[in-house]
Amino acid sequence: MKLALFDLDHTLLPIDSDYSWGVYTTDIGWTDDDHFRRRNDEFYAHYKAGTLDIHEYVRFSTEATRLKGPQVAAQAHADFMATRIRPNITPQALDLIRSHAREQVIIVTATNEFITRPIATALGVSELIAIELERDASGWITGGIQGTPSFREGKVTRVKQWLDERHRTWDEVEMTFYSDSINDLALLEKATHPVATNPDPRLRTVAIERGWRILELFS
After folding, report:
1. Could you tell me if 203 and 152 are in contact, meaning their C-beta atoms sit under 8 angstroms apart?
2. What is the pLDDT of residue 18?
3. Arithmetic mean of pLDDT over the chain
4. Which among 119, 124, 129, 106 is positioned nearest to 175, based on CA atoms?
5. Which of 3, 98, 168, 178 has the fewest CB atoms within 10 Å, i.e. the most exposed one?
6. What's the rounded Cα separation, in Å, for the pair 198 and 53?
7. Candidate list 7, 18, 180, 184, residue with the active-site label
8. Domain boundaries, the chain
9. How many CB atoms lie within 10 A of CB 68?
């Protein structure tokens, strides 16, 4: 089995969809501008530094969405897709995905499923491994995470779960993985063909040291 795995934010998209959703919800009046942007910036800095508490962040980032309820949230997300995401889906990204058309393509992201499922669909990718959100009896999100978050080493766990469900082992797959982030080092190390894509400074250093391919998708 040949797999082509892609991180999403700053890999296939030149923006961070999770951060952008937070900015969008503030722009439409769901949150206090100064407070939310300050906290959102703090969490984003921790993400880039590799020190993010993913559970704390998901509680924070989903709170406004949870309070609005599923219907209002879905309407807002449709506008978010039209105004913030689709303008950032580039021909280069679509061409890269299509170059793996004969392989099993999977997006593996640390952004939650509510934000990323429509983005994966817009990119033409049906298989998505994202942070799964805990849901209440009505089926709406609670602010918690269901299962292992697909973040840092958790991405390795979630991909292994995906393989286990198909009765495959690591040794039975040839895997290419594209990522921009040092947070994804564990999964890059599991890949047959790791590709540092638009890499952050720390990942670029590792890629150069190890002779990994470096792809500047948006240059």
Report:
1. no
2. 92
3. 96
4. 106
5. 98
6. 24
7. 7
8. 2-215
9. 15
